[in-house]
Amino acid sequence: MSNEHVVVIGGSHGAAQLVASLRQEGWTGKISLVSAEPIVPYHRPPLSKTYLAGEQHQDEILIRPANFYEGAEVDLVLGSRVIAINREDKSITLHDGGKISYDKLALTTGAKVRRLALPGDHLQGVLYLRDLGDVDRIRQFTGNGKHAVIIGGGYIGLETAASLKKCGMHVTVLEALPRVLQRVTAPQISEFYMRIHREEGVEVLTGVVAKSINGEGLVESVSCENDLRLKADLVIIGIGVLPETKLAEDAGLEVDNGILVDEFARTSDHDIVAAGDCTNHFNPLYQRRIRLESVQNATDQAKTAAKSLCGKLEPYRALPWFWSDQYDVKLQIAGLSQGYDHVVVRGDWEKGRSFSVFYFLKEKFIAVDAVNRPKEFMLSRRLLAEGRTPDLTRLGDDSIPIQDLLKA
Ligand SMILES: Cc1cc2nc3c(=O)[nH]c(=O)nc-3n(C[C@H](O)[C@H](O)[C@H](O)COP(=O)(O)OP(=O)(O)OC[C@H]3O[C@@H](n4cnc5c(N)ncnc54)[C@H](O)[C@@H]3O)c2cc1C
């Protein structure tokens, strides 16, 4: 191991954790981190929250200080896109034609935005939000009293709406489906978010499909299928992401909605591991293959991948969790709610800003969405990881502490 070289492709949560974990696990060989981005890995969640709202600077969102990589003897190759993995001679090719040889390779290539083809989508001021460069571009079109239209009522769209509102903009969110967050939450959570955005002065239009973006050079408005025309100085499209798997596919690795990895984060080539948004893994807690888009998964799976490279095969079986910050509301999610057949709500979701939605499948507790209820989130995380289910007949009574509702 001492003379071997690990090359990590990617420059975000997965990559930052992988290089740190490699050293912690005793990797003594060379480590290189090759990222298309020009700066060291930074936290992505603040991009739609505090960083967009101007409440945090670039230096404050770095995952590790820039000098960490020097201390850990990690060679940084920044601003360099990898265009090919050559498995025959174990090397990668960079966009400028340069080559780097590897003994082991780690893919943390993450995800890329899903693009929306609309007339006028090329206009200045029509943007997506995935990395720091995107926010810096968005900032050129923000300003007190200006109009922003956000296409897509998912977490990123809603967080962006809240942050732009803080910047003094008039904000409209367009969601094609009947409710925001429809694909990922119960109706109570969707209705709650529609209410709080409206209370904060954001216009949320559901069941409305954007038809074209209009302007000459600069964006001026968005036309919708119901003939509505919305003034716009800025349009942000947030309709989800796709796993960045091209390198892996071209190299002949197995890919199916993400790079297929085993429980040790190994790809179909055992000299190549992968972690984070780009992967698809079997989750033993939910007994199915999943692809997650979360900091938790990128970080925890990277730890597993680093261990595997160091010859310590430990299966990845972390409980998925996620969060979203909008205004004074912190949503914390534990588990996966997809496929639920029953929910129990604790607290006043119709008027208040503190409640939890518990999701069940065949009376088994599978997930929670906790709104400003960190204790219920923490306890639920523990229960879910242990496979325990609270007494669902009395769970809705907010006056009974959850601890008193636990089945033996
Ligand atoms: C605005 C925003 C807000 C979010 N908020 C939350 C949140 O609140 N909570 C949460 O849990 N998650 C949140 N997420 C999701 C979370 O940020 C991702 O799940 C996480 O960043 C995944 O990390 P990753 O390392 O797998 O991939 P990514 O963060 O996608 O990083 C991939 C990296 O690989 C690089 N790369 C890709 N291809 C190549 C190549 N060929 N050559 C070189 N480099 C390459 C990219 O440039 C990038 O640096 C948010 C995401 C965004 C965009």
From TrEMBL:
GO terms for molecular function: oxidoreductase activity, acting on NAD(P)H. Its cofactor is FAD. GO terms for cellular component: cytoplasm. Residues 321-406 form the Reductase C-terminal domain. The keyword Flavoprotein applies. It comes from the Bacteria. InterPro entries: FAD-oxidoreductase/Apoptosis (IPR050446), FAD/NAD-bd_sf (IPR036188), FAD/NAD-binding_dom (IPR023753), FAD/NAD-linked_Rdtase_dimer_sf (IPR016156), Reductase_C (IPR028202). Pfam families: Pyr_redox_2, Reductase_C. Gene3D superfamilies: 3.30.390.30, FAD/NAD(P)-binding domain. Transmembrane segments: none annotated. The keyword Protein biosynthesis does not apply. Keywords: FAD, Flavoprotein, Oxidoreductase. Residues 5-302 form the FAD/NAD(P)-binding domain. This is Pyridine nucleotide-disulfide oxidoreductase.
